[in-house]
Write a structure and sequence with these properties.
single chain; mainly beta; Pectate Lyase C-like; Nuclear Transport Factor 2, Chain: A; 2 domains; 10-stranded parallel sheet; 42 strands; disordered N terminus
Length: about 400
């Protein structure tokens, strides 16, 4: 049982429960006494789908209240769920406790608030999210999410894994506007996520890592702001690896892109840090390869001039045509992820249901690896070409 139990809107879940909401809402009226909506006990298992959980407010009596919308000490599965406008001291939307496991699919954490940590989520256990969105959450630390291997006298695991997820417009009063991960055993891993528009009054507008490790692959950290250091990423006595990612357009007083404290280590692998204000990395020389992509990559031919973001297929590099031919033949493909879903979470392509778009790699001559060129196809035959790993797209006209 967590240090804060308090009152819940529904009975504590101790068995196997499935709730299919069919897009319904479970909410606490603003005039009602404080209570959270769901509590999952250590032996409980809750699968929640097609439901909005809103207005929950974690009750006392302990000094720190936990989980405004949901507190999980067992197994929690969220599918097409929205947690919105919930509040607590830790885990405004969700508190995932010691030994707990949460799996999130195509769900959103919106406008939740935590007085201490984790506006959207506070995690001490194991938390996995695919196709999620964290928007407009706020906290003192970890505006969107807080990940830790400990809290006070409680020892946890602190494993957080995010894929195809957006972390947008969240705010921290002190540190970690987007993501905050701490503890020597903590692990934060991210694949194909976008961290943008987050703000922090102190350090780390986008991502803060302390003592543990953080790995970001094929991700973008853009347009985040810190009042002190590390507009995009700040690293404190931990290890951060950025692979095939970009850190651009972030802002801070020092280390607009990356701030790496002495004793910490940030490794860049084909990950440019550029156009950050006032500098890309601080202190000077702390991040090897800053302002570069690591080993020099071959020049990729630029796409020809386009009109209304449409480009003739005949004008594209020949490797694009080869990729299209492979798709028609159903392979063999260059990358194991070719043919998997492209989520379009940035809304750069026309809106369509999740699963409508598929992603493929386009070979880059002379480049040892996947490179940055991609092809995205729609269910009805549309084809989009990107030279910069989904940052921009050209629609392909196959008739010219």
């Amino acid at each position: 049982m967590p240090q804060d139990a308090g009152q819940d809107g529904l009975p504590v879940i101790t068995g196997n429960v499935t709730v299919v909401g069919h897009f319904s809402t479970i909410t606490r009226a603003g005039t009602a006494p404080s209570f959270r909506i769901f509590m999952v006990g250590e032996q409980g298992r809750l699968t929640l789908s097609g439901t909005t959980v809103s207005g929950g407010k974690a009750p006392g009596p302990s000094p720190e209240t936990l989980g405004g919308g949901i507190i999980n000490d067992g197994q929690l599965n969220l599918r097409s769920v929205i947690l919105a406008r919930n509040a607590a001291d830790r885990g405004g939307g969700l508190y995932n406790g010691l030994g707990a496991r949460t799996v999130v699919e195509k769900s959103a954490f919106e406008a939740n608030a935590a007085d201490v940590a984790g506006g959207g989520v506070a995690n001490l256990g194991r938390f996995t999210a695919d196709g999620a969105a964290f928007r407009s959450n706020k906290a003192a630390i970890g505006g969107a999410a807080f990940n830790a291997d400990h809290s006070a006298k409680i020892n946890g695991v602190g494993r957080m894994s995010l894929s195809a997820t957006r972390v947008v417009d969240n705010a921290a009063r002190l540190v970690g506007g987007g993501l905050y991960s701490t503890g020597s055993r903590s692990r934060l891993t991210a694949e194909a996520i976008a961290i943008s528009g987050n703000t922090s009054g102190g350090g780390a507008g986008g991502v803060f890592n302390s003592a543990g490790s953080a790995v970001l692959r094929h991700s973008r950290v853009t347009g985040n702001t810190a009042g002190a250091t590390g507009g995009g990423v700040a690293n404190n006595f931990g290890k951060v690896m950025l692979g095939s990612s970009t850190i651009t357009g972030n802002r801070a007083k020092k280390g607009g892109g990356v701030y790496d404290l002495p004793g910490a280590k940030v490794t860049l692998v084909q990950s440019p840090v550029r156009a950050n204000i006032p500098d890309d990395c601080a202190p000077p020389g702390s991040v090897a390869g800053c302002r570069t992509t690591g080993p020099a990559a071959p020049r990729v031919p630029a796409s020809p001039p386009i009109h209304s973001f449409v480009v003739c297929k005949s004008k594209l590099p020949p490797e694009v045509g080869s990729a299209i031919d492979l798709i028609a033949r159903h392979g063999p493909f260059l990358d194991p992820k070719d043919g998997t879903v492209f989520g379009n979470f940035e809304d750069f392509l026309p809106y369509a249901p999740y699963g409508y778009y598929r992603r493929y790699t386009v070979e880059t001559p002379g480049f040892d690896g996947a490179g940055a060129r991609r092809l995205v196809t729609g269910r009805h035959g549309e084809e989009y070409y990107s030279t910069d790993h989904y940052a921009t797209f050209h629609r392909i006209d196959p008739t010219c």
